[in-house]
């Protein structure tokens, strides 16, 4: 008797796999090109003094903003604590008088 080998996929299955692999290769190719372009752009920007100055200024402004926000937070917290203390004092006086 003749044995039937089933290790080979059907044509339909083979086409599905081939298309899937082709799409994967195309995606990888575009991703590699995108990454290479990003790296070239980053290198060009790092050689541009205007961009470096702009970037340094942005970082400086961001740090100043963080400091201001922290100071505002501390001030709001202090005011809230004062208000709580006054409220507790008023409540205490109201209860006993």
UniProtKB/TrEMBL annotation:
Cellular component, GO, one term: ribonucleoprotein complex
Keywords, alphabetical: Ribonucleoprotein
Source species, domain of life: Eukaryota
Protein name, per record: U2 small nuclear ribonucleoprotein auxiliary factor 35 kDa subunit-related protein 1
Organism: Lasius niger
Source taxonomy: Eukaryota, Metazoa, Ecdysozoa, Arthropoda, Hexapoda
